[in-house]
Amino acid sequence: MTGELHPPTNGPGRPDGQGGAHSGEDRRHMIRRRALTLLIIVLLIGVPAGYLVISANQSRASGKDKEAKYSATGLTEGWPSKLQRRIYQVPVPHPAWWVASYETNNWKTSRLYVEFETSDAGLTAFLTSMGMSEKDLEKDRLPISARDRDVTGWTFDGPGTWSGLVHKQENPAPTHDVVVNHDKPGYPRVYVVARTVP
User: 0.70 exceeded by the pTM?
Assistant: First the structure.
């Protein structure tokens, strides 16, 4: 009869019953494919997220350590601004870490307090920029005054070899009181008070 519908001879609807097995195999592949896709998504999202959490926790812990270190002082963690470094002529060298600073101003004298740790080469570069050298550092000389120590909370009675110098300049150029602690060989810690009279 023209237009009579006949059942398909192949595919999932085959009348011989073999289409069911074929359909089940496709279902297994589909489940396996979805599971694999889900695993890939979990890995792509979960692994980086885990690293971010770990990194954030480490950064937070480091920040808390630094905050605790400076909480009892007037110092603020971070490099002095480029303007401050230029006015007070305190060129913090590269590399430098544990950098902190504090500025005070009044009608008579302005001061910038800076603390940092650097390498031996960094100390050389810092002193050279002031026209000084390691030879100018006098052992056990601590020229930073008790007043300035009170402002910053600095105490120079810890372990290590201490040395210092005074870099005098005519006003309004700043004068620098410098103390260096050589407790960690190769990584001197530097304390600077730069003061200028407007």
Answer: no
